[in-house]
Amino acid sequence: MSDELELTIVMPCLNEAETLERCIVKAKGYLERSGIAGEVVIGDNGSTDGSQEIARKAGARVVDVPRRGYGAAIMGAVEAAKGKYVIMGDSDDSYDFTNLDKYVEKLREGNDLVMGNRFKGGVQPGAMPFLHKYLGNPVLSFIGRLFFRSDIGDFHCGLRGFRQDLVSRLGLQTTGMEFASEMVVKSTLFKVKIAEVPTTLAPDGRSRPPHLRTWRDGWRHLRFLLIYSPRWLYTIPGITLMLLGLLVGGAIVHGPKRVAGVTLDTNTLLYAGTAVIVGFQALVFGILTRVYGMVTGFLPKKQVLDWFTAHNTLEKGLVAGIIVLVGGLAGSIYAVLSWRHNDFGLLVYPDILRVVIPSVVAIILGFQIMLGAFFLSVLMINRK
Questions:
Q1: What is the CA radius of gyration of the chain?
Q2: How many C-alpha atoms does 305 have within 13 Å on its Cβ side?
Q3: What is the Cα–Cα distance from 346 to 348, expressed in whole angstroms?
Q4: With contact defined as beta carbons under 8 Å apart, do 164 and 86 qualify?
Q5: Are 74 and 54 in contact (CB under 8 A)?
Q6: Nearest 5°: phi and psi at 24?
Q7: Buried-state track 162-198, b at ≥16 Cβ within 10 A, e below 16
Q8: 3-state SS string for 310-350
Q9: Whether the Cβ atoms of residue 200 and residue 121 lie closer than 8 Å to each other
Q10: Taking the chain, what is the end-to-end CA distance rounded to the nearest angstrom?
């Protein structure tokens, strides 16, 4: 039967008795009018309002998905889908299931994922809360495009089409609302073929509040985008902090500097050293996270990191760490000798701190390099 069906229209469901039948009727009507061999599958997430029976009477197939969450309901229905292609959409009557031609055309052209864009197709009055329309969706979509170099204009459109095997191919895992972001992000990272078509959004047809929670689900989307982008979460902030710390510290390590009427001295040097330490730690976290993602398969391989991990052995990391550590210890010994020269009495602290602070920073960085090298070796065990 899977060879005979071209399209499965999937809808997640949790107590959607008010609007579910309308959505199924529209979807089945589209299949009949277009002559497409297809089916409607409902991923039910434990409805208690009789949604399952309503769906069956309307001609849909119901898949019970015990694991709660929007993403879980979608994945459960997609796994049971018998069509070559899947078009998913919410069962609240906000998406137009009567007009799916553009999605089908793009899928037939060979695209793996076809995203709807509500901002190009039209958002009807009252269909999207003000914060979602002018802040949440635009900002999160912008961050997604920036972090992952994606061309998608509407990361969170709920009406989208894809090949039935895409979920398993990409290893999609998130069970909540962030599933929408995961699909776009992983499709972009693994360079599957993506297209975008305009679509419309109508007001929610239900009398009760939606399942979506603005701040909770907005944070879950943002958290997901950050976790899947070690470059923006760790590497770029880390490099920025390190360069800032080195620039400021290098300018005042030999003596105070007056800038815009303010004298920068050893207190500033201490904060500059802190910036270098925190920045380096963030950079190490970025490298380790990216390597872990490559090893486990949730992030694609990166040629630069492949080269780095192949040519940087544990021994090289230990040698580099020891060299930096020895430099810090040498500076510390010099500071002690200077103290001894002063008969271990009071020192001119601004002068001695210009030696002590860089030395302490070097000692910390030396240990971080060595520990990072060990951690990297642990991550690479399975790969080797």
A1: 28
A2: 19
A3: 7
A4: yes
A5: no
A6: -65, -45
A7: bbbebbeebebebbbbbbbbbbbbbbbbeebebbbbe
A8: HHCCHHHHHHHHHHHHHHHHHHHHHHHHHHHHCCCCCCCHH
A9: yes
A10: 43
* CA atoms of 144 and 188, how far apart (whole Å): 10
Q: Which fold has domain 7-227?
A: Spore Coat Polysaccharide Biosynthesis Protein SpsA; Chain A (3.90.550)
**How far apart (Å, rounded) are the C-alpha atoms in residues 18 and 92?**
8
Task: Give the C-alpha separation, 14 to 246, whole Å.
Answer: 55
Please write the tens of the pLDDT for every residue from 302-349: 888 777 777 778 899 999 999 999 999 999 999 999 888 888 887 778
**Domain residue ranges in the chain:** 7-227, 230-379
Sign for the CA dihedral angle at 265, 267, 273, 275 comes to negative
| C-alpha 281: how far from chain center | 21
CB under 8 Å to 319, separation ≥6 — which residues? Answer: none
Q: What is the reported pLDDT for 135?
A: 87
Residue 359 near residue 269, CB atoms below 8 Å: no
Give the predicted TM-score (pTM) of the model.
0.80
Q: Position 263: which residue type?
A: T
Q: How confident is the model at residue 3 (pLDDT cuts 50, 70, 90)?
A: low
Residues 125 and 144 sit within 8 Å (Cβ to Cβ): no
Query: Residue 283 class from Cβ within 10 Å (0-12 exposed, 13-18 middle, 19+ buried)?
Result: buried
In this predicted structure, the answer to whether residue 1 has a pLDDT above a threshold of 50 is no
Q: How many CA atoms lie within 13 A of 208 on its CB side?
A: 11
Q: Quote the tokens at residue 63.
A: 């898949």
Which SS3 state, helix, strand or coil, does residue 45 take?
coil
